[in-house]
Amino acid sequence: xxxxxxxxxxxxxxxxxxxxxxxxxxxxxxxxxxxxxxxxxxxxxxxxxxxxxxxxxxxxxxxxxxxxxxxxxxxxxxxxxxxxxxxxxxxxxxxxxxxxxxxxxxxxxxxxxxxxxxxxxxxxxxxxxxxxxxxxxxxxxxxxxxxxxxxxxxxxxxxxxxxxxxxxxxxxxxxxxxxxxxxxxxxxxxxxxxxxxxxxxxxxxxxxxxxxxxxxxxxxxxxxxxxxxxxxxxxxxxxxxxxxxxxxxxxxxxxxxxxxxxxxxxxxxxxxxxxxxxxxxxxxxxxxxxxxxxxxxxxxxxxxxxxxxxxxxxxxxxxxxxxxxxxxxxxxxxxxxxxxxxxxxxxxxxxxxxxxxxxxxxxxxxxxxxxxxxxxxxxxxxxxxxxxxxxxxxxxxxxxxxxxxxxxxxxxxxxxxx
Amino acid sequence: xxxxxxxxxxxxxxxxxxxxxxxxxxxxxxxxxxxxxxxxxxxxxxxxxxxxxxxxxxxxxxxxxxxxxxxxxxxxxxxxxxxxxxxxxxxxxxxxxxxxxxxxxxxxxxxxxxxxxxxxxxxxxxxxxxxxxxxxxxxxxxxxxxxxxxxxxxxxxxxxxxxxxxxxxxxxxxxxxxxxxxxxxxxxxxxxxxxxxxxxxxxxxxxxxxxxxxxxxxxxxxxxxxxxxxxxxxxxxxxxxxxxxxxxxxxxxxxxxxxxxxxxxxxxxxxxxxxxxxxxxxxxxxxxxxxxxxxxxxxxxxxxxxxxxxxxxxxxxxxxxxxxxxxxxxxxxxxxxxxxxxxxxxxxxxxxxxxxxxxxxxxxxxxxxxxxxxxxxxxxxxxxxxxxxxxxxxxxxxxxxxxxxxxxxxxxxxxxxx
Lengths: 418, 418
Fold this sequence. Notes:
The structure is a homodimer.
Chain A: H1 3-18, E1 25-26, H2 33-36, E2 67-68, E3 80-82, E4 100-101, E5 116-120, E6 126-128, H3 130-133, E7 139-146, H4 163-167, E8 170-179, H5 180-187, E9 195-200, E10 207-211, H6 212-217, E11 220-225, E12 228-229, E13 239-241, E14 254-260, E15 275-276, E16 282-283, E17 292-297, E18 309-318, E19 326-330, E20 338-339, E21 341-342, E22 352-360, E23 365-372, H7 382-389, E24 402-405, E25 411-414
Parallel strand pairs in A: 5-14
Antiparallel strand pairs in A: 2-3, 3-4, 5-6, 7-8, 8-11, 9-10, 9-14, 11-12, 11-13, 15-16, 17-18, 18-22, 19-20, 19-23, 21-22, 23-24, 24-25
């Protein structure tokens, strides 16, 4: 049996319901020098443990990096580097690949000089150094962080060709930190204290207003991500974690928390991070990130290269309001939907991984995914969003993404009417 | 109120049951230049996103690395680099800090040339390339991997001064891979096939016998860890995941799986990875890693530097037989035990994080932790293990670890009789 005839046989078996019959070549019929001969790397001693005190990815994975879109923002210090979602799997984003977005470049904070102040409407204004913070009880939680501008270029139609660029302003890591509630209790919030201002120690002095209710609910003052200290571009040594809410509020290099009795209306919550509606009015305070999903494989940067037959479609979904119990996928632009298979742990306000295994007949595909969150909310189409919000928005685009896949397996960012 | 008097006041408050009263200096009384003056990193634009396509830890964290013990094995290619457990938190080990142990150095496998063969007692011997494997349904699971020799030096008494060296042959990551069961089903295991041999493509051609029951239960043929491709030292591009079982069986650079009807009794399961008893007999096939725990902070590499008052004790626990619902800690060498606080997700055969917050009176401590697993098994003392197994063992030491902390907060590896 030749390679081809076996593959066809296996595809036939799969279609008849035999399940996972996809691959591997029968060996007797196809002697493979990669197996019958000893591979080169088995013929010499490899490098020892002295090589890498802090390990790095394989030399064959140098294409797996964060990438930016040079024209997207004014300059490098105010730009964004996107997570290569199409190269990842599971739900953990490795720290080195977490997207980064700065407004004044990466602050180089000396941890010995780090201080966090709590002031304003409190009984006792307090200053904490890093060690002070580490003497409070800690929690460990996995949460996604999504920039409000993720998919923002897509409001006016398909723009960027790759899920790294359309959806890569998100990462999902395990945080270790102190509940903000404990620090506020330590300072003693006065009765009138209903808002707080979080301020960063970078050159932009990023500031955002956060309602006290959220601060006391599930915010963390975090110093570790995926086990190790925060990365510089993620706010080393301390950032605010505001689960489920837009990333800009997760103030990095956290320097100060002021308690007040009303929001501050600073630049990043008025001029920016608001939603401009068709009538010219802007909606403020769209904090919670609505349920969203995207197919990461196949996608424009990750075409189908193995030809027809069984294949694995994969993607991620998340919601700022809870978990993702269900994701639907369509292969035909929404005419028919099937429920995807969820795999891996499901946490509150965390990324979820889904798969759909199917037998590709080699004909063009129009791929979409649609997330359902634990509140019953269903991810809308882009057209549904535009109907209400027009095309002037920049932020909070959680519309359904479409990839068109042609007979060669090449995928492209396209719009379909809905 | 001075710094010192406030600290004493707060400690008093904590002792009286006021809870988390630990830190922060009242600001009005102690103006802090780090707060009253703008820090240097807020006065210039930081580096932009071009700086690091693949991000790295802060320049202030260069001490957080894997370390080896030069005299421990014959040479660098057969040595071990330990995870810095005392620098980590939560339950995820970042890929760059996962301990590594090789027997022929790191194989540099070209993924385009990678092949996995399944042969022996199967209906159809098969060869898979990397893309073939990725066309099977995948699973995502977090598991610990512990070397059987972890804590091995401690059989003869306290030896190595630091949990990185006594307990650092463990890591805990999220794996993405294909259930081995699916590949075996694809080849069709003959009725007589009750064992398999996993072989690595490194210079040592590492081989281990694994019973079919385990292979069909929960083994994965994994290609990703914490979202990205396996690191070279962890078996890039493919390793076997054998949840809960000793690390040596998790064959890296997985090249071949042979199905047979009995174990192979190769070197690494006879001369090595067996347990030598006092009567000279060796126990084979101690696969499951018994429940174990260690206090990571404070510990010899992580002394108490903040003086008396409230503090956070932290550690990790795991079991090859299930989850860890409970960890006890003692501050006085076992006279009295208290239940630690578990924090973070609890997965089957995964690392668990525990904390114990207490008020340190500045007197010496004898710290121990004791894990209970979901089967009811309780971690034994080292003396209990030695009573049965003597002191000739190298592997499978899951005895309770003791750190002695003196008045200055300095911690040391010690033995206490039990």
